[in-house]
Predict the structure.
Amino acid sequence: MVIDAHSHLLQGRHPVSDLPHSLDDLDDLNISELLAGLDLLGVEAVVTLAQEMARIRDQWLGSNSLAADLQERLEGRFFAIAGFEPVTRWDQFNAPRFEQVRELVRSGRVRGLLITPPYGHFQLNDRWAYPFYQLAVEYDVPVYVHQGAMFGPPENAPQYGGGLWTLDQVVVDFPDLRLNIEHMAWPWTEELLAIMAHGPNVHTDVTMLSMRPHLLAWHLTIAGDYGFLDRIFWGTDYVGRDNEEYLETVRQELDFYRNRLNPILKGCGWPTLSTAQIEGLLGDNIRRFLNL
Ligand SMILES: [Zn+2]
């Protein structure tokens, strides 16, 4: 069965002053239609990420309370990840957020956390973030990381110096921390795979990469050579709540991974993926990662 390991389904963009906090705040939502559509496509569950972007952009994708509510009320079909920015817009430790996510993690109302440094103009290894990592280790929940994968104008990506050394420092400091580095950390994918070699708890996802199929095929080939294919997850990174649009995205993505990827690999003269490896990407690997 398939699991969308990284989406923002039902969690659209909202200003900080007007966040949805529960399923009841989402108008015109046809949940039974959505669940029926997921059943038809063989999608067992969807991981939905709240994403805090308050520090610079004054907005969120969804909210942590909405994510927790979705997990609770759509039990077994939705799993929640809570977002956090560890530093406030006044460059202080974000204590209110720490207390909020500590309670959500402690009570099991979310399955993990999400940190997005480029959106908040801070670094993954900033001192403010370290208490959150220790919290994740203590409660054995993973942290999703948006590192790289920023298109658009330069202010979208103030990662001076580039590269993944900030990630490497976190991996060394927290060897037991389970991480999912989103989007194969494009454009630093080969660097990420090298970090995965000494960081057995580092995982990655292929969301948004099927649009560059040859680049993705190459990166999966290298990951296969390293023996890391069982640490890679598929997802849609879908933002919003248009049932039809979401289900069509899933249908096209599943078609790509099941029917179109291997011909590309073959055409390039690279090893093709086995059915078990493809189904691992589509569900089995994330099931292990989140202990579902
Ligand atoms: Zn995302």
Q: What stands out?
A: Residues 6, 8, 49, 237 surround zinc ion (CB under 6 Å). DSSP finds eleven helices and twelve strands in the chain. Residues 50 and 83 are 5 Å apart (CA to CA). The chain has one domain: 2-289.
